[in-house]
Write a structure and sequence with these properties.
The complex is a heterodimer of chains A (116) and B (117). With 116 residues, chain A is mostly beta strands. Chain A has strands at residues 3-5, 10-14, 19-21, 24-26, 32-39, 46-52, 59-61, 64-69, 74-79, 88-96, 105-106, 110-115. Chain A has no helices and twelve strands. The N and C termini of chain B lie far apart (36 Å). The chains are: A mainly beta (116), B mainly beta (117). The interface between A and B is medium-sized, with 25 and 32 residues.
């Protein structure tokens, strides 16, 4: 069985601070995909990233960066110089390596509030 | 390009009523899924489909039926609504990896908020 744990239920930081959202996963599969999604107050789910398990290089996209460590089963997400628009619920998710993303296991989410 | 379209966006039902949440995608995706989102529980998979005519159960399938008669449509049916089915429902779709498309994104609809009284 697969499991994704986002232990931080809620985080608040002052604007321009850096913040890291933790994601720890469990799986018996040797190859798998990890995702991050953002859910702003409007409710839609916004795709941020998908990484596969055989690519442990860290990823940077603007103010966003992801640290994938297979040794600790973690896929943490850092926002640098946070902005009010980053306020949202962030979900980490996992699926086994397959032909389609039809079966994702989601964490319970971290609600991030950026204080102006 | 509309992406994934869900209807209705809001619905109130009485216990025991039936209804269908519609989901349509215009991206020719093979893979489609239904999730429900409840406070503090993230998103949980209800049913999924890997192509027309093929469906299977996810983590929380009880009380829901699905069918996939076309590639585009994947309706979710509540046969006899219960208050425990009050939730926000998301439909999602994605490409087959063999098609080697883009970022591997799972595309979501805007969600349908269902209240069962």
């Amino acid at each position: 069985a697969q499991k994704v744990t986002q232990a931080q239920t809620e985080i608040s930081v002052v604007e321009k601070e850096d913040v890291t959202l933790d994601c720890v996963y469990e799986t018996r599969d040797t190859t798998y995909y990890l995702f991050w999604y953002k859910q702003p107050p409007s409710g839609e789910l916004v795709f941020l990233i998908r990484r596969n398990s055989f690519d442990e290089q860290n990823e940077i996209s603007g103010r966003y960066s992801w640290n994938f460590q297979k040794s600790t089963s973690s896929f943490n997400f850092t926002i640098t110089a946070s902005q009010v628009v980053d306020s949202a619920v962030y979900f980490c998710a996992l699926t086994y390596f397959n032909f389609g993303n039809e079966k994702l296991t989601f964490g319970t989410g971290t609600r991030l509030t950026i204080i102006p | 390009n509309a992406g994934v379209t869900q209807t209705p966006k809001f619905q109130v039902l009485k216990t025991g009523q039936s209804m269908t949440l519609q989901c349509a995608q215009d991206m020719n995706h093979e893979y489609m899924s239904w999730y429900r989102q409840d406070p503090g529980m993230g998103l949980r998979l209800i049913h999924y489909s890997v192509g027309a005519g093929i469906t299977d159960q996810g983590e929380v399938p009880n009380g829901y039926n699905v069918s996939r008669s076309t590639t585009e449509d994947f309706p979710l049916r509540l046969l006899s609504a219960a208050p425990s089915q009050t939730s926000v429902y998301f439909c999602a779709s994605s490409y087959s990896e063999t098609a080697n498309h883009g970022t591997g994104e799972l595309f979501f609809g805007e969600g349908s908020r269902l209240t069962v009284l």
